[in-house]
Amino acid sequence: MSVWSTLVGQRPVIEALSTAVAGRGMTHAWLFTGPPGSGRSNAAIAFAAALQCPDGGVGAGCPDDHACHTVLAGSHADVAVIRTQKLSIGVDEVRELVRRASLSPMGDRYQILIVEDADRLTEQACNALLKAIEEPNGRTVWMLCAPTVEDVLPTIRSRCRLVTLSTPTADEVAEFLVGKGAEPQLAGYAARASQGHIGRARALAFDEAVRTRRQDVVSIPARLTSLGRCMDAATRLATTAKEEADAITAELDAREKVDLDASYGVVERGRRPREYGPALAALEKAQRTRAKRRHLDVVDRGLTDLMSVYRDAIALATGAQGALVNEEIRADVEHLVATSSPELNLRRIGWIFAAREQMLEFNVPVALALESMMVALKVPQGR
After folding, report:
1. Residue 190 and residue 182: Cα distance in Å, rounded?
2. What pTM value is reported for the model?
3. If you compute the radius of gyration of the chain from its CA atoms, what whole number of angstroms results?
4. Going by DSSP bridges, is the β-strand pair 111-115/140-146 parallel, antiparallel, or unpaired?
């Protein structure tokens, strides 16, 4: 076992980072890029664990020795991870990291700052981060994570060493899931359906409710035979995504409210101090922002599953090699092939991307964007 065991199908990355841990090619700033689910943040955290470990993360006790375990568990005093549930990472959050970066580590190794979703940094946050990276502390290491290098300002990425992760193959993901206790057949399904997204694959392999929701989404193309059914599919997808997002955030919201009340002594004293009102308003605003982000994330995942059906139809129609992502609904895919052309299905994928952009970039209401998309995807009549 080692700290790298969570990285699936990333042997070149592991070799490069292990070499840096050994002192060859080490630098103060790193940029981890790769498609969603490839393990960008996992790679950064594993790298941090290896840097803090006296044995480089591959000793006999790793990853269960103290240094490795505390980094992987998120409790190491010299490793900070900034992750956001909001739509962006603001300058105040980055300034706090910059302040911490200026301090000497408590231990005898590195002060490590990991920024997940670095593509969500605001312009002000980027400027604050750039100054810190330009003037590095000798024992501070920055690790930024983003989907692509283009998602990070050129002035920042030019000062970072690039680490590019790839999408693991279905066989690699299935092997990983079997190692975690999944049944081989279910692991194979989850590996295909997740399209290389490790977190999604784990959820599909071990959570029946997740599998059921995905099956409902991938069955949509075959149902889009009338305007009414298009409206129904849009409403159902938006509602289901909202319910799932609310279920995820409700418990966290309640726990944060309890913690806030306790910190201001509301329960013990039976009254609210003057400072409580603004603090509660700020918390509720942050929770609304997080709920919106989570809702969009769940919808976005559904759109990815929807695109996979049209991708399968194109692959089947053109005789492309390889297994279908949605082998379990091959009959529906064959129906799409019979009722439309590869060119039309490629345009449909473009319409799904357009709906995604409307929601994520232009703040178009989810229901409206989905209704417009479903009408565009409707199966042509008379084919």
Report:
1. 10
2. 0.83
3. 23
4. parallel
